[in-house]
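To whoever is covering the structure queue this week,

Two jobs came back overnight. Logging them here so there's a record in the thread.

Job A:
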Amino acid sequence: STIYPGIHYTDSHASLQPMCLTVCFPGTFPRQILERSDIRVHISVSIDEEYGTFTTPVIEVALLDLHHRGGLLHCSGGSDDVSSNLSLDMSNVGEPTISFLPLPPSFDYVNRADWETVTQQIQEWVTTEVATESSLWMWGCNAFWLAFIAAYPSFLMGKWPMWDPRIPLEGSFIEEWLQ
C-alpha cells in the first residue's frame, strides 16, 4: 500500500507527521502451531528516493493485547470497548474515527451482502468524514475498492452499482485489479 503522511510546515521548514498504523490478523490458528513457533511478520517502509537524504523512516512496535471476557478479540470481532479505545486513539492524532471498524462478529467474508453493506459504510465514511488532504483519504479509498471488488467481483465485466464519483478509480488495490 501507499500512504501519504501529513506535512507540518514552519516558517522555513517542513516535516512529515508521524502515523499510527494497526496491523490486524483476522482468523485463528490451531493452538499447537503457535505454542511451538515464533510467528515472524515482515514489514517494510520506504520513502521515495528523492527524500532519502532528508529522512529515514523508523518503525516502532507497540503490541496491542485485546483480551476481553476471556476471549481474544480479532480485528473483525465486535466490542464496544475495543471500538471506543480505537476511536480514542484515532481522535488523539486528529483523524476521524473509522466508523466501520471493527467489523461486526456476524460479518461473513464469503457473503456478498455483508461486503455490499461494508462497501456502503466505507463510501459514506470516506465521502463525509475524511478530508481529501488527510492521510486517511487514500487508505479509505483503497479500503472502499477492496470491499467493492469483494461485493462485485465481476466489476467491469458484469453489473455493478455506481459508486460515489468523489471516490476516484485510483489507488494501489484497484490499479492492480484493473491490470
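Job B:
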Amino acid sequence: MIRHPALVLLRVSREKTLSITVSIRQFSTTKENKARNRIYNPVRNFADFDTYRSLSTSNRIPLLTLWTASYCNVCKTVSPVIEELIKSGVGEEDGGVSYCEVEYDSQDIMNSGLGLTYMITSIPTLLSIDRGEPRINTRIVDPKKMTNKDFMREWIRTEARNGGSSGGGGVPFGPGIFGGLFGNTQK
C-alpha cells in the first residue's frame, strides 16, 4: 500500500501550534499508466477494423486510420512518415493514439462498404475515429499535408488531446441533424 506523508498543523492554544505527520492512504495502489501509442497491423477485413475501433474506444484514445490502396504510390510515401511520428511518441504526452492502415482495395473491405460508411472519397485519406465515431471535420486528404512532419505532429497532438471526449467532430452538413435549429451546439 502506498502512503504519502502529509503535514497537518493543529492549533492547541493561541501560543502553541502542534505539527503532526499523517499518512494518507491512496484509493488505488496501482501506478498511473503513461499513455502509449499503438500501431496495429494493416486492416484487410471488417472484423479487424471493428476490433481496433472497439479497442481504441474502450481505451478512450482516438484511432487514426490511413486509408490506402495497393496501387497507390503516394500512399507508400505517406505511410512511413505517419508511422515514424507515431512510433517516436508524438501524442503520448497528450493522451496517446492508436494507428492502423486500412487497405481500401482489399476484397473484404470493398464488399463491406466500409469506405462508404466513413465517407472515404479519395486515397490516401487520414481519418481519426474518436469514441467509435469518425471526425469528418479533421480528416486529411491532401498528401502534401500528410508528408509535412510539422503539420502532422500538430495534427496528431490535437487528435490525442481530444481523445475520448469529443466524438464525431461534426458532420459535413452543419452542426447536428437539425442544422443548429435548436441553438448553437458548438462550444
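Note for Job B: The two ends are 42 Å apart (CA to CA).

Please reply-all if you pick these up so we don't duplicate work.
Q.
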